Every structure is written in C-alpha cells, then in structure tokens.
Amino acid sequence: MSTDEQAIARDLSGRVATLLEQNDQSDPARFLGARFDAGLAWVHFPPGRGGLGLPQSFQAQVDAELEAAGAPGPAKSRNGIGLGMAAPTIAAFGTDEQQQKYLRPIFTGEHIYCQLFSEPGAGSDLAAVATRAVRDGDEWTVNGQKVWTSGAQNAQLAILVARTDPSVPKHAGLTYFLCDMSDPGIDVRPLRQITGEAEFNEVFLTDVHIPDSDRLGSEGQGWKVATATLNNERVAIGGSAAARESGMIGPVARAWREQPELRDPAMHDELLRLWVEAEVARLTGERLRQQLEAGQPGPEGSGLKLAFARLAQTISGFDIELHGEAGLRYDDWSMRRPDKVDFTGREPGYRYLRAKGNSIEGGTSEILRNVIAERVLGLPPEHRVDKDIAWKDLPR
User: Fold this and answer.
1) Cβ neighbours of residue 379 under 8 Å, at least 6 residues apart?
2) What is the DSSP letter of 119?
3) What radius of gyration do the chain's Cα atoms show?
4) What is the DSSP pairing of strand 157-163 with strand 139-146?
5) Which of 107-116, 163-172, 347-356 is least confident?
6) Max Cα separation, the chain?
7) Pairing state of beta strands 113-116 and 157-163?
8) Which of 187, 205, 41 is nearest to 117 (CA)?
9) CA 59, CA 12: separation in Å to the nearest integer?
10) Phi, psi (5° rounding) for residue 249?
C-alpha cells in the first residue's frame, strides 16, 4: 500500500470511528442516513451522494470496520435491486437532482425497488419490449405488462424500460424510467412458483403517469442504461463477496461432516469435485471484484452468473441424493409472498426446487453464453435479421 493509500485508510478509519461515536445504532434507518451523509455508503460515489470520490477498493475497509463494530448495514437481502442495480445506474446516468432525490432513500431502506424489464414476449430478447410510453408535455403515459418481477408487492419504486419510439429498430426506441409503484394504474399479481411461494409477480400498467424528470438518461438511450443495470445485476448475483463454503455448497459440506451415516465413497469423490468448483467460482468472483474497483462492471459478470446458476443446480441435485428419502420431504408448500429469498436456509427439497430458477433469473444461461461469446471472447455474433428493421414492422 502506497503512502497516499495509507493516509486514505487512516482517514477512513477516523471517519468510521466518528460515525460510530456520534450516532445511535439502535435506529438502523437513522444510522444508515448518517453513514450516507458521512460519505461512507459508497465511498467511490461523489461527495454529497453517499461517497467521497475515492477508489472503490476502500469500500471493503469501511464495511469491515462497521461490521466488526456490530453496526447495522443496508438491507441487501430485501433491497438487492435497489442497492445492486438502481443505485449504481442512478449514479452513472442520473442528473444531480435525481441523485439527490433517490440515492439516500435506497441506502437507508426507505425505498425498496423492483425491476420492470421482462415481458411475456420480451424475456431473453429484452430489446423487444412492447410496453409503451407516450410523451405528453412534461409527462409520460405508460401502458403494458411486465412479468417475473421480484418483490413488486413490497416495492415503492421500480426501474422501468419502455418503448418510446416504435418507428426505429428495437434497440434504439427504448427509454429508461424510475416508476412510482403507488400509481393507481399499477396492478401487481402474484406468480406462484414450483416452491409454492410467490416471489415473482406480473405487473400490469394502465395509463401510468411518469414525470419526465424521472426519465433516466436521454430519450432513446434506454438500451444503454439497461445494459449497465444488467451488468451490475449479474455481478451482484454471481460475484458478490462470499466466504469459503458460503452459498449452496455450505449446507452440503456441513451435512457431510455432521452426518457420517450419509456418506459413501462415490459421493465423497463427487462432493470434493463440487467443493473445488465452488471454491474456484468464489475466487474468480473475488478477482473480478478487484478488477471492478477501477471502473464499471462489464460483460465478464455474465460468466460468474452463469457459473453460479450451474453450480447451484448441480450441488442442490447432489444434496437431494445425499439425503436419500429425507431429501424428498418438503416442509411447507403453502402460498407465501416472502420479503426476501433464502437460497440455503431451508431443507434440501426447497433448495433443489428454488435452484431451477437460477438459470432464468438475472439473464438466462443461453443468453449469457451469447454475451460471453460475443463481448468477452470476440466471436462472430449471431446473424440477426431484425437488427435494422423498425420495431413496428417486426412480425409478432
């Protein structure tokens, strides 16, 4: 660490100590607001926007010192979309007024976000969205349907991609908005999954009014803004900071150690192979996070998300086999709408069923392979006959 970096580290430790000394931790929202105001929310964000304009690498120090002190942290499990997707997108594309208005409530947990991207006819091909936004003066009127929307029943705000110009090719006619989920034209309906729960929803938008001041980026720039959001999402899903034996491999390894009656030699070999793959993926994620400290996430995050989905499904299948008949039991298939998803906290049957969604949510594995092939490996892109055709002229 250079002399300058040592000086920054000492300064940050002093700021953390002052924050802890001057603020009561019993009220998490108030403490997180004070942390934001002190520039310790996202140290790489600009001053006044939750940061100090420092390299992102120093965030780990701040997080570690606050965690060691037992201070409350942001609600990542409940507001992953707001913290991991909306906040960096607003920081990158938002106006000063938008950053001032929206960043602090994301960090304090006052604003929970959902993501209005996918549609019944535009899932893997996100650029084909048909939800229409029509401008009338300083306001947009939005009509359409979104689907697979996690946490919409609890969200105050949404990040929304809508079509604003159907006369140009599909990628060029999109615009990105921040949408108030309390608008009376929004109808949220649960989608029950194979687990019995309804984490996801379909969302119908009927004459929803969005002020132009809540447009993120320029009109027609929606694809560029959405791509930045998705890159952040895939890093958040596949490359979040993780300790050894976290994730799906953790409960399997613990069961192996604590229940010797489950073991057999063939399974031992398979478990070791999966353990090594999980550890390689974890270390690869750590390396990617270190690379990201110098800039915005790129398409490499797709590789981590792809690995996460494959490993979760393979390990959860092994988990079922390891537990034999007990692995087929299921504790509760009642209809619930959870505030957060616990991938590893329940029994093997739940983990196995829930992992099936990992290769769909956050970008399907098939599409992510295309992203890796074209944007990481530089292979020739697939031939796309609709690339230069106006969206309104495409067959549907």
Assistant:
1) 373
2) B
3) 22
4) unpaired
5) 347-356
6) 71
7) parallel
8) 205
9) 10
10) -70, -20
CB distance 15 to 40 below 8 Å: yes
- Whether 308 and 358 have beta carbons less than 8 Å apart is answered as yes
Amino acid, res. 132: R
pLDDT of 153 above 70? yes
- The per-residue pLDDT for range 289-306, each reduced to its tens digit, is 776 665 555 666 778 888
Q: How many residues does the chain have?
A: 396
DSSP state of 147: -
Specify whether the CB–CB gap between 150 and 105 falls below 8 A: no
State the helix-helix crossing angle for 301-323 and 265-292, rounded to 10 degrees: 160
Question: Is the dihedral angle over the CA atoms 82, 88, 94, 100 positive or is it negative?
Answer: positive
Q: Residue 228 is which amino acid?
A: A
pTM, two decimals, is: 0.87
Tokens of 69: 């002190």
Cα-based distances in Å from 289 to 29, 35, 59, 182, 392: 27, 23, 11, 35, 41
CB 364 within 8 A of CB 124: yes
Label each residue of 34-62 as H, E or C: HHHHCCCCCCCCCECCCECCCCHHHHHHH
Distance of alpha carbon 182 from its chain centroid, rounded? Answer: 22
Query: Within 10 Å of residue 209's Cβ, how many Cβ atoms?
Result: 14
Looking at the annotation, which residues are catalytic? Answer: 233
Those residues with Cβ within 8 angstroms of residue 259's Cβ, 6 or more apart along the chain or in another chain: none
| Residue 23 CB-half CA count within 13 A | 23
Buried-state track 224-234, b at ≥16 Cβ within 10 A, e below 16:
ebbebbbbbbb
**Do 20 and 60 contact (CB within 8 A), yes or no?**
no
Q: What is the separation, in whole angstroms, between the first and last Cα of the chain?
A: 57
The span from the CA of 293 to the CA of 51, in Å, is 14
Q: State the DSSP string of 145-208.
A: EE-S-TTGGG-SEEEEEEES-TTSBGGGSEEEEEEETT-TTEEEEEE--TTSB--EEEEEEEEE
Q: Please report which residue ranges of the chain form alpha helices under DSSP H.
A: 3-22, 28-37, 59-68, 80-81, 87-93, 96-108, 222-238, 249-258, 265-292, 301-323, 348-355, 365-371
Instruction: Report d(CA 206, CA 184) in Å as an integer.
Output: 9
Alpha carbon of 262 to those of 18, 251, 257, 268: distances in Å?
51, 13, 9, 10
329 has a pLDDT exceeding 90:
no
Side-chain-side CA neighbours of 102 within 13 Å: the count stands at: 31
